[in-house]
Amino acid sequence: MVNPRAAAIDIGSTMHMAAINPHADDNPVRAFGTFTGDLHDMARWFKTHGVTTVAMESTGVYWIPAYEVLEGHGFEVILVNARYAKNVPGRKTDVSDAAWLQRLHSYGLLRGSFRPEAGVATMRAYLRQRERLIEYAASHIQHMQKALMEMNVQLHHVVSDITGVTGMRIIRAIVSGERTPNTLAQMRDVRCHATIETIRAALSGNWRDEHIFALGQSLACSTSTKPKFSNVIESLRSHSRR
Description:
The protein starts with 5 loop residues before the first strand and ends with a helix. It is an alpha/beta fold. The chain folds into 2 domains: about 110 residues, 2-Layer Sandwich (Nucleotidyltransferase, domain 5); about 100 residues, no CATH class. The protein has a 5-stranded mixed β-sheet with strand order 3-2-1-4-5, with helices on both faces.
């Protein structure tokens, strides 16, 4: 036994099963809720019995609150891939998942998954959120193109990017009620390669209300989910100062 003060948690969505050394308590396996207060109760129970290291097995994101609370209480916490625990032979059928994890962890047979330090984890969370927002915005842009095509307004064929200066000026004007091709074409940015005449020809469409509505909805969603990387950097700086 290399970790005599080891504990383990079988993470669930509404209940966590925690286990400590069976010689340390008459009831070495206990159930705890997933509320924040329950997580602190679990940490205090571990402290009472001298636990120093905790292994947990989980899928999804249910492990994150428990991990952070236990780490805040000073425990060494490792997240275990369920496949590793299942591949270790010798388990009896009447042993609970938490008790089996505790036994494996006490003998040093579990390998923790990579978990970066706090600052890197924070930056990774921001960048992953930014990546998701970019993906969401891209899907809304495709919906905008679909609405334009249904109206036979072929703006995306005459400008390289409908989310550029020219494209967004024209789309916002259409959503606001402008329908005159010549007026819309005059909103062309000087850097746009297409001429006013070409843009005007592409903007004669079938202005059906349902397509305008869909275009407005997609426009609102694309602008609300478009992330600003400067905001991400400022959030990281604020976090580092704290």
